[in-house]
Specification:
This protein is mostly helical and about 140 residues long. It contains 7 helices and no strands. About 80% of the residues lie in helices and about 0% in strands.
């Protein structure tokens, strides 16, 4: 039983590290690479969470909550950070990916609200992201 728990914890941490890698990739992305970096992010999200950035921006709030409901709390936190990096980068880089910033801001705020309502852990980082996103609306 302990080995099984250890395995699950390692898999959760491995996925967190992969999301962190994407956050860094997006934050360091330049205008020439941004489209490819978004595609790489989309492929990862689709494979691991059955979501893409475009789908997140266009799906209804209830469908979005349904999709993220089963994610580990640490993954939802990292997803907030990833979406925030994409939103920030969109301010400086024009993209032809077919999604715009405003719906991503709304979904990010919805995700933060979901985490706040279902988590026992307070996050200053999440609060700062929330405040920044609310100013962008």
């Amino acid at each position: 039983m302990i080995n099984s728990k250890d395995f699950l914890e390692r898999e959760i941490e491995k996925l967190n590290l992969m999301i962190l890698k994407l956050i860094i990739l997006i934050s360091k992305s330049n205008p020439n690479d941004f489209e490819n970096d978004i595609k790489e992010t989309d492929e990862f999200l689709k494979t691991n969470f059955d979501l893409t950035i475009g789908e997140i921006s266009t799906m209804s709030n209830s469908n979005f909550i349904e999709k993220i409901r089963d994610l580990h709390e640490s993954h939802t936190d990292k997803l907030v950070e990833l979406l925030f990096e994409i939103i920030e980068k969109m301010d400086s880089i024009e993209t032809e990916q077919g999604f715009n910033k405003h719906p991503l801001i709304e979904k990010s705020l919805l995700l933060i609200e979901y985490i706040d309502n279902h988590s026992t852990t307070f996050s200053v980082s999440r609060l700062n992201i929330k405040n920044t996103l609310q100013q962008l609306i």
